[in-house]
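pinging the channel bc i need a second pair of eyes. not urgent but kinda urgent?? the chain im working w is below, pasted from the shared doc
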Amino acid sequence: MTVGGTAAQPAGPADPADPADPAGPVGGRWVGALSLANLGVWVGWFGPLQLLLARQAEQLTPDHKAATLALVTGVGAAVSMVANPVFGALSDRTTAPVGRRIPWVVAGVLGGAAGLLVLARASSVAVVIAGWCLVQLALNAAFAALTAAVPDQVPPRRRGMVGGWLGVSQVGGILAGTALATLAGGIAAGYLACAAFSVLAAVPYVVMRRDARLWPAERPALRWRSFLTGFWIDPRRHPDFGWAWLTRFLMNLSYSVSTMYLLYYLTDAVRYGGDADTGVLILTALNALTLLATVVVGGIRSDRTGRRKVYVVGAGLVITLATLLLAVWQTWTGAIVASLVLGVGFGVYTSVDFALLTDVLPTAQDRGRDLGVINIANALPQVLAPVIAAPVVTHFGGYTALYALAGALALAGSVLVRRIRGVP
């Protein structure tokens, strides 16, 4: 992995240091390889998050499983919140011959697999925390690089479509991770299966070697004060970026609050009669079904109309409806209906909001860093969700109050999207 160099050469037309947006088309093979690598990252995250960490917490501390799960996921999310923008900024400055994003994809998936192997052998809460922090640290390096590759190489008029396929890979990763965790035959086997999948899924993208390169002569001098202060993007100077960050934070906080205790929701509120792991897998699959039916279509329609906000607002309202169904209809049938509705909302939201975010980035030269700052809005809710959810479930109204809160957060995120002025 290289962050410096000597020989200067002229930049090519797709060089990300050029502030102009890329104009050329992107091929289906590249989009497919990017999506597959992204899917592997999500498998590495959500196999543990959907089932394995919850089961491990239950096994190690059966009387305090919720608190243990909250501690593990909260510490891991705090690591993620720092890692994503830092690795994004480092990839902005990388001058490796293969490009500035690919080295971080390789290091990230290998490090993530190592963390999953640690989790597979963990016999104490401390080791679980250490393993999960390594997974978060490494996979965020890969995720930051993969995300930044989109504005590097995809013209704005096509980002809704590419965002749609990344949404497919996200939900596919959640589904595949849940399936691997369920079907592998145990906690350790589930971690091993997720680790192998994450590594293999990145191979086609890496082998393709299509990556925008930063030539050594164009890499700005490293000044640590400027590097560190660059992570603060003043919302007064960049209000659209600020509103986009806030709305994504609210939507992800709603999602984290909704999904983090899904396994316990089925066992403690729904009183699901079968195996709860299988119940989570069924709901995840149903959610994936409607999400996949809308995610690419939503992105393409947004590209064709040139409008983003109306789709994001509408999707947020559908997500609000789904969370309220979970609050008031606590049966297996209600959970199925809510999962289907949630998939429709998140399908459209995932693709179009990603395109909207790439349209409000402050600078072309710092795309990795700026998208990493945006991704804090994905990680911070994972820190806050257990802090919020555990006392709500335990002391302030149980799962009815929890999912009503999730609905209020999604509604607020939907309404505030309208404050973004520079995107139609």
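so The radius of gyration is 21 Å. and The mean pLDDT is 85. — does that match what u expected or am i reading it wrong
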